[in-house]
């Protein structure tokens, strides 16, 4: 390389002298360098990008046997390293206008610690064979590391990306450290591979953080990080604790967890559609809606609402914009606005998720999910769709989970004292096919599509049956009682011809109940609420007693027995006795003596508690019709009383 010293500026000659001596070139002489100071640098620190390019690729070892070590310089022009093999490079605390290193290979360590890239930084398909240091670097333009390969460590700790940050399909063989980095525009790590540890501790993503299709082979740490949105769609996790994730929205659509993991999420919405937990997952969610449509839980998994964790990160308030802000350099403005955006994001997340009154985590869909090994704890299931889910009979729902309740009395289509638990599909079906239940929530779930068919009543009955079995296996008899009521209610409604036809229940919808079964279901519902409503059974018993008593006052059914006689006198001579009938109260109806209602009511009350009539004079004598009525009373009254006791037992059994 020819050395024409007349072409060099004083700053460039100083650099050349340092290279010949094998020493670093530090224009700050070890002093601290601030962003404000960088903007004031003039020709005394300016190095032409064309000269630096020649030095980095020179074959003459005289110039750079150990690479170039430059600090506190201003690189002027476009530093074009496209496709070149670059010797060890250190540009610490330098101001770099534009760098294009697409396809370049950085042999040895490459350090851009504290550098400010005022233009674009393009490292497309670049290869870093040693450690790549971008600690505290500031990228005011776009930073492209698409398809870049980091063989050693990749250190972006404290870096600030005010433009777009693209790490699409980048490969991190060593540790990738983004601790305390700030991304004020979208950050894309789509398809990236993290073979070593991925550290995003304290990182701030004020826009979307995209990890679609990324692979985390080592540990993934996001403690103290916040984001407007995380997207881990189709990501592959081999880490046991990849969180916590704090964001407005977290997307795990199609994500695969290859090892048993514990996830802590604080988000207004968590999308876990088609998630696959091959060895199980413990998902702790704070606030918002969780969508588990088509998810597969292949080992024992837990989803629970968190009232406390994770601790929401904070960001320092930069305060009001300083005077003369418009006169700041673009780099200074970008760094200040990055702090402002980070603080505002942290404040918004704290307002939504940090309050002690944070709403209960809600599961909005389990459609077609494999949920046999899933345990739900403390979550709301009011809007959860279960249609098509597999293994509901083995799924466990904790006592702290909540379901919908029917409309409160005096609804014109509902009766009092029936505050049972109702699943979303029943409420949705009732609103579509009946006039009632208008006040109950049937808001479509997050994953619902306009053309999703409404489940048939027999399908809803099957959902209730599976949920009931799960609670019965868990020895929660009172909870299972509500689902049994729902199952029977759906079977009863399916028996109605009009509803059966309107719902499209043919042979594909299940067997249509017979006429006898329909009548039995109607009676079973009316007299005892399927053996779960004691007040109905007792009311039916009271009606039976009063009704029978009223009928027995009619001569057609009963009459008073012959009145007993008492001795009034004795003929001492003959020993003959004189009898006089005992006077009894009676009611005259024309020429017929009717049984008093009090007497007949006493008779029905006595007869209802005995199957066999006791010996002795009865209160009244029945006719043929009255005998049939008496037999029916003896059979039905104990049955109704037994249903009332069964209902009470169903509510207190453990």
Description:
The protein is of the alpha/beta class and 654 residues long. It folds into 3 domains: 7-128 and 140-270; 401-527, no CATH class; 536-652, no CATH class. 27% of the residues lie in helices and 23% in strands. The strands form 6 sheets. An 11-stranded parallel β-sheet has the order 5-8-12-16-20-24-27-30-32-34-37, with no helix packed on it. It has a 10-stranded parallel β-barrel with strand order 7-10-14-18-22-26-23-19-15-11. A hairpin with a 2-residue loop joins β45 and β46. α10 (534-552) runs antiparallel to α12. The N and C termini lie far apart (91 Å).
Could you list some keywords that capture this structure?
654 residues; rod-shaped; 12 helices; alpha/beta
